[in-house]
Design goal:
Elements lengths: L1 E11 L4 E3 H5 L6 H8 L3 E3 L6 H16 L8 E5 L10 H9 L6 E5 L5 H15 L4 E9 L9 H4 L4 E12 L3 E9 L7 E2 L20 E2 L1 H22 L9 E4 L4 H11 L10 H4 L6 H11 L8 E8 L3 E8 L1
Parallel strand pairs: 4-5, 4-6, 11-12
Antiparallel strand pairs: 1-7, 2-3, 6-7, 8-13, 9-10, 12-13
Helix pairs in contact: 3-4, 7-8
The protein binds acetyl coenzyme *A.
């Protein structure tokens, strides 16, 4: 059976750090409130780097770790909701920035914080079907571009960053065991960013600046429920129990959501990877960034069962299980 084996991981975050203390000078908030309600201490903010730059750097790092030349990649899928342009896609820019071959497939998927797992799901299906042999999957978001930095309800939560993995078509028992993606558009109003395009030959309107809008309390409840369900779905699908999990890598939105998800599964703290305190919520960047850190810290061994789970705007939610 052909499976997608993760043969390399990489990430990139902008160097500029924005601490909670910096936010205290921008909005009516406090370091204590942010830590108590979210677990976040600081986040990275792009200062000159674009979504394409950050995605390409994460991609290059993943290729280096995999020992794979850009010319070997036959598919690039990027999960993002903060691209630099409506088109071309971020994946097309990455193709050009890393020097991948002409004529390969490259496209973006829009699933907010579930973007990386949606992209992984798509790439895995290409590999399993035989349509791709080596795929580059990227999760990247620069929420600093869409957050209202005067709104304390949202601006304390997000940061910028990207992660990437190289998938290789391999026979055997290792690799991605399953992916599960879901959506419920009925809840779209709980988290969205309007697009302020209004050009028309019929009238003359000036576009308004549009920021991300969020109903934090409502999202919190849905996130806790759906992330728990998505984990259970992935375990049941593979006939696994929570005890079989070596490491849970959840989307890093809020420490309380992560803890509730882990508690529901009965997973001890040391089996849950958390870097939310240093990066905040990097949306689609969050899971591959955390994975890359866990790999670099040697926390993942061959044969380990890794569970990924995400939740985001759409609403969307997703999970995946990998035998490393
Ligand atoms: N500093 C100080 N006070 C604040 C701040 C802040 N930064 N933000 C809100 N408050 C105040 C509120 O105004 C409110 O005051 P009030 O009681 O006088 O009205 C009080 O704190 C409590 O506000 P709540 O919204 O009830 O606080 P809560 O404990 O729910 O925490 C939070 C808010 C952190 C946003 C939480 O609801 C959450 O994490 N929700 C999920 C958000 C999320 O994960 N979004 C991303 C989804 S993934 C994606 O696709 C991007």
């Amino acid at each position: 059976m052909i499976r997608s084996l993760i043969i390399g991981t990489g990430s990139h975050v902008p160097p500029r750090v924005l601490k909670n203390q910096d936010l205290e000078k921008m909005v009516d908030t406090s370091d204590e409130w942010i830590i108590a309600r979210t677990g976040i201490k600081e986040r990275r903010i792009a200062d000159g780097e674009t979504t394409n730059d950050i995605a390409a750097k994460a991609a290059k790092n993943a290729l280096k770790a995999a020992g794979v030349s850009p010319k070997e990649i036959d598919l690039i899928v990027a999960g993002t909701v903060t691209p630099d342009m409506l088109f071309p896609s971020t994946a097309c820019f990455v193709q050009s920035h890393i020097g991948a071959s002409r004529g390969i497939a490259a496209f973006d998927v829009s699933a907010a914080c579930s973007g990386f797992l949606y992209a992984l799901d798509a790439a895995d299906k290409y590999i399993r079907s035989g349509a791709s042999k080596k795929a580059l999957v990227i999760g990247v978001d620069l929420f600093s571009k869409i957050v209202d930095w005067k709104d304390r309800n949202t601006c304390v939560l997000f940061g910028d960053g990207a992660g990437a993995v190289v998938l290789s078509a391999e026979k055997g028992k290792r690799g991605i065991l399953s992916t599960h993606i879901h959506a419920d558009g009925h809840y779209w109003k709980t988290l969205y960013t309007p697009l302020s395009l209004c050009s028309s030959p019929l009238h003359d309107k000036t576009p308004e600046r549009s920021y991300m809008k969020m109903q934090g309390n409502e999202l919190f409840k849905v996130a806790v429920r759906t992330m728990g369900e998505a984990c259970q779905e992935a375990l049941d699908h593979n006939g696994l129990r929570a005890e079989d999990i070596s490491l849970l890598i959840p989307h890093q939105a809020n420490m309380r959501i992560i803890k509730a998800t882990a508690e529901r599964l009965g997973l001890p703290e040391e089996k849950v990877y958390i870097n939310l305190d240093r990066y905040g919520n990097t949306s689609a960047g969050s899971i591959p960034l955390a994975l890359d850190e866990a790999v670099k810290k040697d926390m993942i061994k061959k044969g380990d069962i890794i569970l990924f789970v995400a939740f985001g705007g759409g609403l969307t939610w997703a999970s995946a299980i990998v035998r490393w």
